[in-house]
Write a structure and sequence with these properties.
MeTrfase_14; Methyltransf_Zn-bd_dom_put_sf; Rossmann fold; seven-stranded mixed sheet; 17 strands; SAM-dependent methyltransferase; six-stranded mixed sheet; 2 domains; 13 helices; SAM-dependent_MTases_sf
Length: 420
């Protein structure tokens, strides 16, 4: 798998799928640090690298993609700090998924389930509990070791054609392949999808959850754009990418996760899995919005600028009134949002996060300190800015006690508002 795909300054970038020249810009978010490179206290006074965060659209295949500037092995490092099991709602989502697919596709103890980007075993633990033979593939050592500690066979590797051939030579052929929030994270998407075709059993099923480009644009979710995401997918683009590898999208589901996701159900092109009516409906919805129209992408960046202005106007008004504001959460999307908007510790005294791996460190770029959630109850702020807005309801439940001193929540977009 090619992990080093830099764009040489001065040359015209090309689509990572079809290699067409990229001449259409979706949005330019300026310079931003690597989202998950949390800063240790000892390094807080040191400089850190910032890279252009620019998103382009292929006029040919309609794959939306970030400008290639960083290799994947510079982003998904051994000390990667995101642990999926820290979110109870995400664990519930994973458990429901396993129940649904095992029932729908008749998976049993003799079946084989491979998850690509298995993180800390958050999902495979539920398949393993059913007696299904499981294998996790995870390139980041820190989270992979947590999966191994749960008894899940986990390989610390990047996935692609070469590694897929290796697994097949070991006797692995998967009845179910799961890839949650990974398809957008691979720089060589063709190599990755070809690897899926090699590993998938003749009548096997692969499912991939990605943030849905349609919802990202409809809700102005620009903060989900960061260097870790190489691609942003629609069904229009997804069908073309899978078809080029000999695979077929036979069903889709629209999900609420991550502000609006799409789950692709994929099989071999000649498989017996019948295509559902949902595929045609989602394609129709995407085309009705204008995902096949250049003008839609050109206009969208103006809504991003409006979201930035709305949030800054609200925070400036609150700070001028002497209000104390802190953040909740330290997700990657917070790094994009805060750096693009120029929101540092002059607006947010600190933020909190449940992940011990982030506590005691600083957000990249803006250098806002990250504390345990209990810090909010000690500081008693007037407002809590919810940075992982996709978990808004879960966070409001966890932090409901702030109402005892009159505390309120701020949701940053698509138009910033205060919520009790």
């Amino acid at each position: 798998m090619n992990l080093n795909l830099p764009t040489v300054v001065g040359t015209e970038p090309k689509c990572r799928h079809c290699r067409s020249k990229l001449t259409l810009t979706l949005v330019d978010l300026g310079l931003s640090p690597v989202a998950n490179d949390y800063v240790d206290p000892a390094d807080c006074a040191k400089a850190e690298p910032f890279y252009p965060l620019k998103v382009l659209v292929c006029r040919n295949c309609r794959l939306v993609q970030t400008l290639d500037l960083l290799a994947a092995d510079k982003i998904f490092r051994a000390d990667y700090a995101y642990f999926s099991s820290n979110s109870s709602s995400w664990l519930n989502h994973a458990q429901t998924y396993v129940e649904d697919v095992t029932r729908r596709f008749g998976l049993a103890a003799a079946s084989r389930h491979v998850e690509i980007a298995s993180n800390d075993g958050y999902l495979l633990q539920y398949s393993m509990a059913k007696g299904i033979k499981c294998l996790g593939i995870e390139p980041c050592e820190s989270v992979a070791l947590a999966g191994l500690a749960k008894g899940i066979d986990t390989r610390i590797e990047f996935f692609g054609e070469a590694y897929s051939h290796k697994l097949v030579s070991e006797g692995w052929t998967a009845d179910l392949i799961t890839g949650n929030n990974v398809l957008a994270h691979v720089p060589d998407i063709n190599d990755f999808v070809s690897g899926v075709r090699i590993l998938l059993a003749p009548e096997g099923v692969a499912t991939f959850e990605v943030q849905h480009l349609l919802r990202l644009m409809q809700l102005h979710e620009f903060d989900t754009i960061y260097h870790e995401h190489f691609s942003y997918l629609s069904l229009i683009a997804g069908q073309r990418i899978f078809a080029a590898a000999g695979l077929r999208v036979f069903d889709v589901e629209l999900l609420k996760t991550h502000g609006g996701s799409i789950r692709f159900f994929v099989c071999h092109a000649q498989s017996n899995h019948a295509q559902t009516s949902r595929v045609a409906q989602v394609l129709a919805d995407e085309r009705a919005y204008g995902l096949d129209d250049d003008a839609t992408y050109v206009a969208w960046s103006e809504s991003v600028k409006a979201t930035k202005r709305d949030l800054l106007e609200l925070l400036i008004e609150l700070k001028c009134d002497g209000k104390k504001v802190v953040g909740y959460g330290a997700p990657a999307k917070a790094v994009t949002l805060l750096n693009y908007c120029g929101i540092g510790s002059d607006f947010l005294d600190f933020t909190v996060d449940r992940a011990p791996s982030k506590q005691g460190r600083y957000l990249p770029g803006v250098r806002i300190p990250i504390f345990p959630p209990e810090a909010i109850f000690e500081a008693k702020p007037d407002f809590v800015l919810i940075l992982p807005w996709n978990l808004k309801d879960e966070i409001k439940d966890q932090m409901s006690a702030i109402k005892s001193w009159g505390g309120q929540f701020i949701v940053p977009g698509p138009k910033a508002f205060i919520e009790n």
